[in-house]
C-alpha cells in the first residue's frame, strides 16, 4: 500500500510540468503556430522563479508570499520568451521550427551566464527557504494544473474566443474574411503557451525542488509536445497522455537503485515511451489544418 501511494504521488508530481506545458503548447498549435521552444521556455521560467525568490529572500528574509512572486516571475519570463518566438514566426514569418530551436539553444547558455554572475557557478542557484504551500505532500501547483484541464476545455470549446482560436488554426483565410484578427489571435495563443510553460518551470524550481539546476527540465518540453500530439490537441486527451508519461517517469524513479532492470534502461524509460508514441501515433494524428504555416494577409 505504501509503495502504491508513493507511486501515485510521484506520478502526480511528474505529470504536473508535462500537463502545464502540453496545455500551453495546445493553445499555440490550435492557433496554427508550432512552439517547439517549450523546452527552453521551461528553463527560463524555472530560472526566473528561483532567482526571484532567492533575491527577495536575501533582501527581506523568508516569507510565505515570496514563492508567489517567483511563480509570477516564471510566468512573465515564459510569456516574454514566447513573445520572441511569436514575433519571429508571425510577423517575420520565420521557420517556426528554426525559431524554436534557437530559443532552446539560448536556454542552454543564458542560465549559465546568469548563474555565474549571481552565484559564481554555472550549474545551480542558491537554495530557497520559502516554499509554495503543500497539501497531502503535493504542491498547490499540482492541484492547479489538474484544475486547468476543465478550464482550458471550456475556454477552447465553449467560448467565442476558443471558436476564433480554432478557426485561425484550421483556416485562417476564412477566419480573416469573417473579421477575426488572425495575427492577434496567434500572438495571444503563443504568449499564453509561454505563460503555461513558464508556470511549469516555476513548479520545477520552487514547487518540486527548491533551486534552479542547469538542464533541470531534462527534455520535459519535448515530452510534453509528444503528449500533446498523443492527446490529439484536446485537454482531456492531453491529461491522460501526460499521466502516462508521468507514470513512466515515476516508475523509473521507483525502480532506481533496484536490480530488477539495468540502470540505463530505467533512466531511458520515459524517453523510450516518447519515441514509441511518436512512431506509432504521429501518422494517425490530425493536427490543426494550418499549423506550421505562416499567414500573410
What's the topology here?
Elements: H1 2-30, H2 38-60, H3 66-91, H4 96-119, E1 134-135, E2 138-139, H5 140-157, H6 160-170, H7 172-177, H8 182-208, H9 220-230, H10 235-255, H11 263-281
Antiparallel strand pairs: 1-2
Explain briefly what this protein structure is.
With about 300 residues, this protein is mainly alpha-helical.
Task: Give your account of this protein's structure.
This protein has 297 residues and is mainly alpha-helical. Helix content is 72%, strand content 1%. It is built from eleven helices and two strands. A two-stranded antiparallel sheet has the order 1-2. A hairpin with a 2-residue loop joins strand 1 and strand 2. Helix 1 runs antiparallel to helix 8, helix 3 runs antiparallel to helix 4 and helix 9 runs parallel beside helix 11. The radius of gyration is 19 Å and the shape is globular. The N and C termini lie far apart (60 Å). The mean pLDDT is 91.
Q: In what order do the strands lie side by side in the largest sheet?
A: 1-2
Uncertain residue segments: none
- Main sheet? 2 strands, antiparallel
Number of strands: 2
Binned, the helix content reads: over 70%
As a percent range, the share of strand residues is under 5%
Mean pLDDT score: 91
Broad shape: globular
The rounded Rg comes to: 19 Å
Following the backbone from N to C, one meets helices and strands in this order, namely HHHHEEHHHHHHH
Distance between the termini: 60 Å
Tally of alpha and pi helices: 11
**By helix and strand content, what is the structural category?**
mainly alpha
Amino acid at each position: 500500500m505504501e509503495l502504491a501511494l508513493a507511486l501515485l504521488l510521484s506520478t502526480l508530481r511528474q505529470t504536473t510540468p508535462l500537463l502545464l506545458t502540453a496545455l500551453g503548447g495546445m493553445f499555440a498549435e490550435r492557433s496554427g503556430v508550432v512552439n517547439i521552444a517549450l523546452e527552453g521556455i521551461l528553463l527560463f521560467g524555472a530560472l526566473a522563479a528561483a532567482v526571484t525568490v532567492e533575491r527577495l529572500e536575501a533582501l527581506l528574509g523568508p516569507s510565505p508570499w515570496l514563492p508567489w512572486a517567483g511563480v509570477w516571475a516564471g510566468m512573465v519570463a515564459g510569456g516574454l520568451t514566447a513573445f520572441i518566438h511569436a514575433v519571429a514566426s508571425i510577423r517575420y514569418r520565420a521557420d517556426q521550427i528554426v525559431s524554436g530551436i534557437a530559443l532552446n539553444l539560448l536556454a542552454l547558455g543564458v542560465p549559465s551566464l546568469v548563474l555565474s554572475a549571481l552565484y559564481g557557478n554555472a550549474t545551480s542557484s542558491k537554495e530557497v527557504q520559502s516554499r509554495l504551500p503543500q497539501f497531502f505532500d503535493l504542491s498547490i501547483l499540482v492541484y492547479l494544473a489538474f484544475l486547468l484541464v476543465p478550464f482550458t476545455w471550456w475556454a477552447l470549446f465553449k467560448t467565442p474566443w476558443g471558436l476564433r482560436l480554432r478557426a485561425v488554426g484550421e483556416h485562417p483565410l476564412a477566419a480573416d474574411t469573417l473579421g477575426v484578427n488572425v495575427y492577434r489571435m496567434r500572438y495571444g495563443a503563443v504568449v499564453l503557451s509561454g505563460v503555461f510553460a513558464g508556470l511549469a518551470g516555476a513548479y520545477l524550481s520552487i514547487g518540486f525542488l527548491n533551486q534552479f539546476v542547469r538542464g533541470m527540465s531534462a527534455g520535459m518540453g519535448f515530452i510534453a509536445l509528444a503528449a500533446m500530439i498523443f492527446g490529439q490537441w484536446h485537454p482531456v486527451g492531453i491529461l491522460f497522455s501526460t499521466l502516462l508519461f508521468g507514470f513512466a517517469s515515476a516508475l523509473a524513479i521507483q525502480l532506481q537503485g533496484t536490480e530488477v532492470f539495468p540502470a540505463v534502461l530505467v533512466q531511458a524509460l520515459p524517453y523510450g515511451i516518447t519515441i514509441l508514441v511518436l512512431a506509432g501515433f504521429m501518422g494517425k494524428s490530425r493536427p490543426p489544418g494550418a499549423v506550421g504555416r505562416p499567414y500573410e494577409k
